[in-house]
Amino acid sequence: MADSDSGSDSAGGDVDTDAGVAADPVRVVAVCGSLREESTTCVGLERVLEAADRAGAETELLDLREFELPTFDADRDREDAGDAEALAARLRGADSIVLGSPMYHGSYSSPLKTAIDYCGFDEFRDKTVGLLAVSGGAFPVTTLEHMRSVCRALNAWVIPHEAAVPNAGSAVADGEFVDDKLEERVATLGRRAVQYATIEPDPDSFESDQNVGAEGK
């Protein structure tokens, strides 16, 4: 599907044509898996949410620096694990979730992994999820692949379009993207998060069928 800024990328104008009344706006929540003060991942997610906002969505950025999330321990109830329950509740309230992470050792970051480990099917099943990855070097393919695999294990519907920011040290200057084409690719993810927020989900995946720990987190 070609990327575009056409009106078809919106959430149907937020109007329930059958009832003739305005529908609730799509809610897009992004999770930043980088804890750096000057985070390129955060800059990218801000652009994603700006595009989603322009497409008519309500948006929220969850900065994991603001949450107390102890290392995941399956023997500890989520309610007793710092801000884990509050984070999970924010994700449950989303129509679309966008996950953003820097590439660490060929995968995604441990803060994001911890955040996801405190969640389960209640937060991700049949939900639209977008992916953004950032790397200091070349295209962060494996980071995107690993996040996509985890989302499928949670029965999320992952947007085919994914955004990657390679060579992060030169991609952003003073909080702004240097390359307009790269910024547009990132912004497209935000529009897709709105456009596909209510898409009919795929059948349950094989991975989720084996993910017994995700039920009733």
UniProtKB/TrEMBL annotation:
<feature type="domain" description="NADPH-dependent FMN reductase-like">
    <location>
        <begin position="27"/>
        <end position="168"/>
    </location>
</feature>
<dbReference type="InterPro" id="IPR050712">
    <property type="entry name" value="NAD(P)H-dep_reductase"/>
</dbReference>
<dbReference type="GO" id="GO:0005829">
    <property type="term" value="C:cytosol"/>
</dbReference>
<dbReference type="Pfam" id="PF03358">
    <property type="entry name" value="FMN_red"/>
</dbReference>
<dbReference type="GO" id="GO:0010181">
    <property type="term" value="F:FMN binding"/>
</dbReference>
<comment type="similarity">
    <text>Belongs to the SsuE family. Isf subfamily.</text>
</comment>
<dbReference type="GO" id="GO:0016491">
    <property type="term" value="F:oxidoreductase activity"/>
</dbReference>
<protein>
    <submittedName>
        <fullName>NADPH-dependent FMN reductase</fullName>
    </submittedName>
</protein>
<dbReference type="InterPro" id="IPR005025">
    <property type="entry name" value="FMN_Rdtase-like_dom"/>
</dbReference>
<dbReference type="InterPro" id="IPR029039">
    <property type="entry name" value="Flavoprotein-like_sf"/>
</dbReference>
